[in-house]
Amino acid sequence: MKLPKEIIEKYREPFISELGNYINSELEIIVKVKSKRLMENKNGQKYLLLTFEDKTGILRAIDWFNAETNDSKVNVGNIIRTSGKVVVYDGRLQFNLLQDSPVIVLKEGEYSIDRFVMEAKRSIDEIMDEIKKLIDSIKNVHLKRLLNEFFERDESFLKKFKSVPAGAKVHHNYVGGLAEHSSTVAQLCDSVCKTYKNLDRDLLIAGALLHDIGKINDYKVTSKGIEITTQGELIGHIVSGYEMVKVKVKKMKVPEDISTKLLHMIISHHGELEWGSPVVPKTPEAYVLHMIENMDSKLNRIFAIKEKELEGNPEKDWSDYDPNLGRRFYLKHELD
Amino acid sequence: MKLPKEIIEKYREPFISELGNYINSELEIIVKVKSKRLMENKNGQKYLLLTFEDKTGILRAIDWFNAETNDSKVNVGNIIRTSGKVVVYDGRLQFNLLQDSPVIVLKEGEYSIDRFVMEAKRSIDEIMDEIKKLIDSIKNVHLKRLLNEFFERDESFLKKFKSVPAGAKVHHNYVGGLAEHSSTVAQLCDSVCKTYKNLDRDLLIAGALLHDIGKINDYKVTSKGIEITTQGELIGHIVSGYEMVKVKVKKMKVPEDISTKLLHMIISHHGELEWGSPVVPKTPEAYVLHMIENMDSKLNRIFAIKEKELEGNPEKDWSDYDPNLGRRFYLKHELD
Amino acid sequence: MKLPKEIIEKYREPFISELGNYINSELEIIVKVKSKRLMENKNGQKYLLLTFEDKTGILRAIDWFNAETNDSKVNVGNIIRTSGKVVVYDGRLQFNLLQDSPVIVLKEGEYSIDRFVMEAKRSIDEIMDEIKKLIDSIKNVHLKRLLNEFFERDESFLKKFKSVPAGAKVHHNYVGGLAEHSSTVAQLCDSVCKTYKNLDRDLLIAGALLHDIGKINDYKVTSKGIEITTQGELIGHIVSGYEMVKVKVKKMKVPEDISTKLLHMIISHHGELEWGSPVVPKTPEAYVLHMIENMDSKLNRIFAIKEKELEGNPEKDWSDYDPNLGRRFYLKHELD
Amino acid sequence: MKLPKEIIEKYREPFISELGNYINSELEIIVKVKSKRLMENKNGQKYLLLTFEDKTGILRAIDWFNAETNDSKVNVGNIIRTSGKVVVYDGRLQFNLLQDSPVIVLKEGEYSIDRFVMEAKRSIDEIMDEIKKLIDSIKNVHLKRLLNEFFERDESFLKKFKSVPAGAKVHHNYVGGLAEHSSTVAQLCDSVCKTYKNLDRDLLIAGALLHDIGKINDYKVTSKGIEITTQGELIGHIVSGYEMVKVKVKKMKVPEDISTKLLHMIISHHGELEWGSPVVPKTPEAYVLHMIENMDSKLNRIFAIKEKELEGNPEKDWSDYDPNLGRRFYLKHELD
Amino acid sequence: MKLPKEIIEKYREPFISELGNYINSELEIIVKVKSKRLMENKNGQKYLLLTFEDKTGILRAIDWFNAETNDSKVNVGNIIRTSGKVVVYDGRLQFNLLQDSPVIVLKEGEYSIDRFVMEAKRSIDEIMDEIKKLIDSIKNVHLKRLLNEFFERDESFLKKFKSVPAGAKVHHNYVGGLAEHSSTVAQLCDSVCKTYKNLDRDLLIAGALLHDIGKINDYKVTSKGIEITTQGELIGHIVSGYEMVKVKVKKMKVPEDISTKLLHMIISHHGELEWGSPVVPKTPEAYVLHMIENMDSKLNRIFAIKEKELEGNPEKDWSDYDPNLGRRFYLKHELD
Amino acid sequence: MKLPKEIIEKYREPFISELGNYINSELEIIVKVKSKRLMENKNGQKYLLLTFEDKTGILRAIDWFNAETNDSKVNVGNIIRTSGKVVVYDGRLQFNLLQDSPVIVLKEGEYSIDRFVMEAKRSIDEIMDEIKKLIDSIKNVHLKRLLNEFFERDESFLKKFKSVPAGAKVHHNYVGGLAEHSSTVAQLCDSVCKTYKNLDRDLLIAGALLHDIGKINDYKVTSKGIEITTQGELIGHIVSGYEMVKVKVKKMKVPEDISTKLLHMIISHHGELEWGSPVVPKTPEAYVLHMIENMDSKLNRIFAIKEKELEGNPEKDWSDYDPNLGRRFYLKHELD
């Protein structure tokens, strides 16, 4: 039996960010252990200091009762289920473990990984609908057939495409990030074609939708977060994306003049050798794809920084220094 | 009396590119002297070898009759009016000066500078209409008023804005180039706002239309081509554009939170310090403006390269190496 | 009533660096709270661990009596007045708060900000005298008038010029730093003119005195230290300095050939695009200003490093690695 | 009938470098037209100035008899067969075309392309023997089988591998260059393994032999010299080499742990992103391959420069500046 | 009396890495004090928390008995001898100082510095033998004599050459590192000469053995680790190595054509100006030396990383990010 | 017999720049042959077109009488003595060789090399006087003695020091350039010490005078211009200057603390590794020397550009683009 989403959502354990609603209540939570430290006071009594986390925040916890037992049972990185009382201590929330409540270490499958990784804000179905509309709008039969071969008929591909992020840290670093990034880039390319009439719209949209698909091999989403795979480190999405498209253009018999230009777009989309493309863009379409793709990656990060900083402090004028983009960002609200 | 454009066009002297229609005819032309060389044959007779040019091409000419007189009268770079016969020699067109036709060196004002500088393909009126529509669509009253102060009421500004190029060599290097570039960038920014809803559209379009206006001080269009002015070398459009906008935001009393963000967009639009912006973009709008502006500059150059190369040889697969963009471009026609 | 400086100095509360003279005495201090931590021992008694700082150093403090009251009253970053006893603990000075002495959080204006920010070693009056002598030595009437318009008649400018630093971290990062840097650079430029006779001394000195004046908009000195303003982040001193000079050259009707060269010096003084100048120096004077300005900035930092390291340990041979200059410095005393 | 090599060699037309042996003789030559210019003397007689070339040098030629006919028959870049007399004029050899000898423009297939492109000094058979010995020495059955699949059984691959150069200009820019470079790199890798015992010799040699095989798609050797193909410009040998190996490892069922490391070596062999590798070497073997491959490329160029310069002038101490390597090379003979 | 190595090894105090064999035993150790902290519990009892280290690892220690006495006696960085009990606490080894065992601070000479610095894995005698064999194989009498002047007759040089490292942090950062690096590079150069016959083998091997000898002035090995000397910071091994060789080539009357090429190899061996060579390699031998030297430095680091990581966790797939080489390394065992 | 300078100057052959005073006269000149071309007119008569040059300019020449004889006698690069008539042809001066005047190729020693290389504008004696005054002003006896050992007692050094340039192309590229550069840098350093009181003036001046002395080994002045020597290419002035000073500090027993700091200044004076210093400046004096030395080098070039451009065209506003400094320079005269 598969429960409806609403039911699951209603009866799930609260997230850390929701515990403010439960002060002085006792309740059960599912969290990841971020750190632990066994302490001892003067007269030899042991207690266990813990930090818990899920995708919504972190939480200080203390176990006064089963410190040594739980210290040996639990490792940093474990996902656990336990009960405790939510209290306020030293101005912050704290979770005091109950005396008679065991700490249960959960195995993969016994908890939803969604508790520990961020997701795209928009639903994946909505994003996939956008992609399908874009494919439907393509006139060139070879490119349309090729795209459908990926987005209509390749179940294994689709499953991964819908779930992987488009980055581990810098941008679109959440479940569904690849789909969201691909769709946004394709939409922007579509807009750009309205201004530059002599761009090949079909080619540009096909390139936009396929440019990052190699990333389905690069990332692994676990309770530990987004990790880069061995395949991702040794080969990388530029080359594995090329290979995925090459296999399908052969299968679908896409004419070589089309397929070569499309494959060129895949491998040149980072724009410069030093950014990891083995060749630079040498067609207008490849050039536009690179520029638009780059803009979406950076904007996704900028908006994420603004959102996170203003959540923390709505009065803040400037973000902290972002080492990735090499600057601080101005946070003041926009014009009305 | 100001003649209608059609009349002027009809009765003007032919361009060099049109001389193929006049083989073996005698006619009058207005050209620039690109090079000259006084020659002497064995028996002491002098003749004058010349190369002429206008914006449509170059032309070999020879003066067998008044070589020494014309050699001392004419300097390289002069604009001249003269008559001759169009012949074919050694597989190319050649212009043989007539014996009894004097060479007249024209002064500025005696010829249309349009013969010697390239122009935007689209009419300047069409471009200005686009700009006006964009201004009309702006909702923020301060920004709309500010833009109208430039584009409606500042005649001196408008005259220059409509005529200067947006570059001396690399991109939009023709009369009307600044207006065309500004309009295209603003339209692309408008499109981008449809995808990223939390961009401040009014601010972005205002920044797009104003970002390069300092260029009216940077370039001087003469019969010698596009030259950089002393002001352009010593100050540059980034700073002089800032100053032009600053003077008007003070006059129009634009609130400081708006004007500072707008001025930041002007000076940060080159995107990186090493590309000449004294500060990098620190708002999403400044970042988008930089990316879009950069894309339009590069695409304008890429399309110009493709057009020029295919004009020369429609069968060519690859452009020559372009030192500015550091690559060759693929010229093959697009998909049907 | 304004007390004489000597009186103020005599009766002021001691600085942290002076507390070694008061061991085992009780006294009152004014300090900034750098960190605090509420602690609890086994039997539930709370105590408050604090770190204090002023411009002369840092100090460990402990409050055994009013821990919770003071913890809720005081925030990190507050300037406080309190009384305690100076003791030696674990080899270092410690300040034990007294039981019956309240901690008073001071507001801006209730304390002298001078306690918390460093100052130039030389008096600001001495520096301003040097600047005036340099202005007096200028022969070109336009430039002399322009400089006097800033340094004689613009009170609001002068007040800021005398107090702001010339940097937040790297060099001249203290009150009076801008004035000191400007004067030193102008003096060095004066010396250089004795060797290179064909430099325009008047122009060079004027450029030296004005090159960094935009920094009066870039920094804000508070008890938190030197902060970069929003204006400093979004516009920066290169462009705002240009604007300040441009406004005054218009007002004073400085001839354009002079003013353009002067303005060029302001915006090109960082020397290279990647160091934030939108144009590179294109006159000998602009080039010299850049080189001398750069040398003074670096030497100011090098001397500050040497001084600070040798203060800490007069026997040290080598400074720690300086990430800003990318090297260690040799500290050994110079030849006698 | 296929003639033996010796016969072909004996009866072939002489190369330009051999014409010094035929002064004042009449003979037939096969050359490429490098330039031509139709001239006219005072009394209207036309003559045709030509420059010929083959892989051994260039030659001035003149046609006094059929200037206009031949001018319209021959284009620059054509390969022609013609007869003339070898003379010495103005200190250099000159070829005077005979009156009654026609100029025949040859089509591809009517001449040996070998006349116009340089070849490796060592015979291709010798090089292939070295490669085979290296393959025989490999112990890992998967890698040995994979290599034999390329070097024993893939005739189409082998034909191209033996003939293409390893570069268009910089190094190994001659027929057989790829084979020579691959063999040399593999031998050096073999040597290196004797010093570093924990390198995986089989993997390293396999990577060395396969690292550049994608170059069979990058270059086209024609009478015009070595040209980069569209495939070479748009995809490049790094990615196409990866693809070639990937297809065969799948076919040969090479275990994934081996094949991934091998494929990583192919795509990382340029060593740095800015040199065109989409990933940097992350195994010791990939690192060694990059270093050795780089060394052989550079040394091949250095030795070619030394040889060419000393051929021109055996007394020369220093080569001309080499823009590719950014220096001059010392040419003095080595120690005895 | 000098004890045999085996005896010294047998009766020495255990290293930290060996303490796992002594759990719950009391024993004497010689360690360096890495950190210390005097603590006090509620009722005023003091205890001293310590961290010890030697070249094999670090160790937590606690002194419950003589905390204040030992706190004032011992400084961070001291080498001490003391006795205690090895216990397991909080999952890690801990060393509890005994009540009646004094802590003795050792002076230089009272302990073996070998306890605190790493050594080459291979014996220095084995390495020196390799070097001698290489020298014996040299045919050029001048170079052989020169090398013997260093490696046979200069005792003071030899003593330092055998003990200094070839780097402080990045590679060969252990006692004997310089000798090991020099020998390995010379052997690789020897191998390379078998492939490139026209390299001058004698010159190359001489350069390889001498290229880094200036490092005997750069490093000082103390119990604190490897430190850079003032000579190393202000002059550096490139220049001081040049000087050392120059003095000896003069003494040995090496002909100038040989010595200049040899000295060029010393100063150009870093390969690029930005890597610290004042000139770039301009002979094939100098170029090869640079490449091989660079490869050995990097490989030494890569193998050290692999070894250390797999020691820590034999199941690990990927090393941590190495900031020096800018990447992670794949750790999976090689093919069988 | 050595003639007084005035006599030599009076009776010397005129320079090319002086020929305007001899139009239509016959006279004898000494020039270098820059190019030659043997021509033939229709009726078979040969004539020889020549270009001559000396340090003051270039000159077109024609030999109508002994074309073939002189063509075979003279090579490009030869210095010749010949007679001819100065005429004006095609608006420029031309030198027509006389029928009965032979062309004499001169050997080294038969002409003054001064005709072909530029010299410092100031007399070398004046420059050496400045240097002596600076040495006299030094208080530290070791440094004074060391400098006198070079500048008073080392005749062989002094002879070279006075004549070599400080650069082949970029700056101080004329006879006496090294002395002029050294003196100017030392004077500027002297000035700088008046502002920064804690600089070690003696050390700084000694470093300034010695920093570039290695250049006496780098350049060779011949009639072909300034050439870099093999020593200059393979070792370079940074290292050879270090060696020269090291030899003398040993001889003069300069204490090591002084000599090490001085030697550090020599090798670090290029300021950055990528500019050829093997170590960066790590003392304030080394840092100042680098900055001042750099400034003088650049200013010398800038002033040379301005002078040369304004000589050519006093009305020019902007110099041509200078590839070495990467910009154009503003040429407008300075303020009065």
Automatic annotation (TrEMBL), chains A, B, C, D, E, F:
Annotated GO biological process: rRNA 3'-end processing
SMART domains assigned: HDc (SM00471)
Superkingdom of origin: Bacteria
CDD domains named in the record: HDc
One Pfam family of this chain: tRNA_anti-codon
Coiled-coil boundaries: none
Chain segments annotated as transmembrane: none
An example Gene Ontology molecular-function term: hydrolase activity
Domain HD: 178-298
Keywords on record: Hydrolase
Name listed for the protein in its UniProt record: 3'-5' exoribonuclease
Species of provenance: Thermosipho atlanticus DSM 15807
Taxonomic lineage from the root: Bacteria, Thermotogati, Thermotogota, Thermotogae, Thermotogales
